[in-house]
Amino acid sequence: MRHIPNILSSFRILLIPFFIVQMLRGEMVWAAGLLALSGATDFLDGFLARRFGWISNLGKVLDPIADKLTQIAVCVLFAMVLAGWFWAFLGFLVFKELMMLALGLYLLGKDVKIEGAYRFGKVTTFSFYAIMILIALFPAMPSPATYALLGAVCVLALITGLRYIPAFRAYRAQLKEARK
Asked: First and final CA of the chain: distance in angstroms?
């Protein structure tokens, strides 16, 4: 039973090629359904891991990999199929993720816990899934509405990334105190 979260994360990774095929075929409803299934299993694996203490080192790596691979596939496929500002959106998210990864790894290496980013990150992830599903279901949505939705995801992603800064500043302050 304790392996269920890891199985769900692996399942999310296995869903990616099916999502890609549906997007390339223009089967947006199927693509949206697969994305909804992926999002549901993302939240279920996290809930089960926390609720029952089924957290594992493999899960700590597998879950974020499944998240990022899914998000990249979604952004790239939407950029290819729907065009518009999706390339800028993808670039923004990739930049934000790389910055968060670099800062997160730095703080992890210094054994600093990042407070407050976790819950807001879940809100951002849920919003990403919900908005991408909405765009997939309504690909002919007027451009201003699509851009507003993408802007909302970008703002949430930016806020999530900025939540790392207080932990970084606190660590730097501790470091300066220790050197005195």
From this structure: 50
Query: How far apart (Å, rounded) are the C-alpha atoms in residues 35 and 132?
Result: 8
Alpha-carbon gap, residue 106 to 74, rounded angstroms: 28
Render pLDDT for 73-115 as a digit per residue (tens, 0 to 9). 988 888 887 766 677 777 887 787 777 777 767 766 776 665 5
- Per-domain residue ranges for the chain? 4-179
Buried-exposed string 40-62: b where 16+ CB fall within 10 A, e elsewhere: ebbeebbebbeeeebeeeebeeb
Closest of 30, 97, 89 to residue 67, by C-alpha: 97
The class of domain 4-179 in CATH terms is mainly alpha
